Amino acid sequence: MTEMSKTQSELVEGSSLWRDAWRRLKKNYAALAGAAVVIFMASCALGYEVLSAGVTRFTYDEQHPFIVPKPPGARSVPRDYYVLMEPKEALSFEQLDIDEDGLLEASEIERGYRLVEFSFIDTDADGRLSFDEYWDAPLSLPAPALDEIPTCSRWEQIRVSMAPIEHADIFACDMDDEGFLPAARTDKLLSLVSLGEARNIMGRLDKNEDGELIKSEYAGLPAPVTNVLGTDKLGRDLLTRLIFGARISLAVGFIATLVSFLIGVTWGATAGFFGGKVDNIMMRIVDIMYGLPFMFLVILLMVVFGQNIYLLFVALGAIQWLTMARIVRGQVISLKGQEFVEAARAIGTPSISIIFRHLIPNALGPIIVYATLTVPAVMLEEAFLSFLGLGIQAPMTSWGALASEGRDVMAIAPWQIFFPGLALAVTLLSMNFLGDGLRDALDPQLRKD
Amino acid sequence: MSRYIFKRLISSIVVLFIIITVSLWITRQAPSNPCLKERETNTCACVAENKLDRPVFPIYTSIPLVGADSCDLWSRSSGGEVGPVKILGVSQWGETQHAEYLKTLGSGSLGNAMKSDRTVIEMLASGLPFTLQLGIQALIIALLIGIPSGLLAGLKQNQPQDYALMTFAMLGVSIPNFVLGPLLISLFALELGWFKPGGWSGFQDSILPSITLGLYYAAYIARLTRGGMLEIVRKDFIRTARAKGLTEQTVVMRHALKGAMLPVVSYLGPAFAAMLTGSVVVEEIFGIPGVGRHFVLSAINRDYNLVLGTIIMYSTVLVFLNLAVDILYTFLDPQVSYDD
Description:
Chain A is mainly alpha-helical.
């Protein structure tokens, strides 16, 4: 009752539907938080180029395939982002040039990075690794072929060829009498760059491009950058890929929703406005389509025509318009008997402009609410398709595709499924909260309390 | 009533016809055939590998197989009505092809799977028990969790129980099953070792997949039930029932529940459709040899016969399930009458 009298008194003051809705929405903290998260995700997606160059320092398709996948906190040397470390002490030209031929070779650069990485992991700077330091270091996890505990003799055989294995036994195999891992035995553990990458870095430093890096050209090695959320099996930075994936996931969500919005609103408004036989036939078609396994048709489309992102937009939008059509029709039917429609008709406005100029703007509240709830539904479907390998194709990626990659390596690299899954779940949750909040705000009659 | 059922039956058959036609049309638009990339000398091997040397449906592709006529395998089996020569004859495309397909369907065949020695029906039949068990168990979980939580939330509206349950429900509809599944595997299979991480050899192995599949729908049904409950407890007949001095339990169980179930019942049809789709992912995650897994594999292998067969079977199941749900609805809601 109080709600009603409040609304009435505000109507006297001339409060519009939208201002009224905004007032109600402001009180719904869950919806506001949801909106904030959605805006944050959308700005990350839009600002991928900026974030990639300025924050993560990696690009989404940049590979560092050496010792991978790297766990969160591990480091790589970005391809395009160069901040040179000061060429002092251990990193001075003389120290790096161990064969003293006046040139820096790739293997010497690789060794230089090993020193950098060792000083990073050796937190107490005593020149050796304690077990705690070893354990806390973001080193690569067991290679898939070695899920059982390797014995020391086996480890001796493979340590020359395999990626390092984070395992207490490995430490036990390699430690000295005092229980420490001496710097000399950490070579394999600490390889930050591969020889190939070292050669690339050398090429970048070699300003006169004569294939030789001499002292006057050397101004320090490019600094490694942390892979905040780790990398995938090709050494691609997960955070960067998540941001790029947000772009695709959100784009699919919004564009497909727009498609469904256009079809559904037109269909529903036409049916509702003309009524009678037209309505009957059009809505019967909607009824029939409701129970169809549309996802299978979409899968068939993706299989036959290849994984085309525009096809994905249209196909996902085309299966989501049914509820929209029903909602719009209901609204239009209840609106079309009102005086303003009669007035428009009386002055000879054609049906089309009555529908699009008068009826639809007045039915916008529920339409927006449903559109907000369609976005997460579409995103879920895109993720579903990408998860099956039928959606977005590499090197492009979406959250679903990332989760799909992550599932294959779940046992050795759990972060690869955890973070995309988290991003997807948080975004969907936020959108659902926002949609519910908008429904309560815009359409108090629909409110279930 | 019987007239309504009859009308719905007719429209169901029309729907199935449309689905078959549309899928057939989509498949026919495929811009390649399985042996397009082969060099001509390899065509015969490719034909044999894709089982095209046997009667398959005349649906494969509108791109003819160059050089296939000279294959030994090819000419040998050209005598039959649905022989492979016909399949690739360009003149065969169009209405004839459609009619032929429907005729073959009518005779109860879905053709051969292209990448396997078995027929499509055999493959579907081998997968169906797993998928059905998964679907039914997931549905049971969804209803057993969803309805009571929805009822409780509706009865305790705006109280802590309501908020807690609805937050869980919101979480449930927001976590994709392909995230939930691996999460459950790593927790209950890898960490705790209670279940096997994949495969299917008995009831024990069906628990995690069913939960993965069912939780989303449990959450959705909880939301629906709560909404239905809130609507119904405001109705006069509930007030009357309370005023008569009936116990709360009787009011809820005998009077409110039936009405509150209406949105849930009308959701069952779409829910089952979505569950069949969802089971594709769950089967993939848990390595269950159900229909969904066949479907994904066939889609990736471009085994169009199996893809089409799966779509036709699923559509048939769903169309008739929807029919059943609508009929059930008329029994639950006396206000709905279909005798027009």
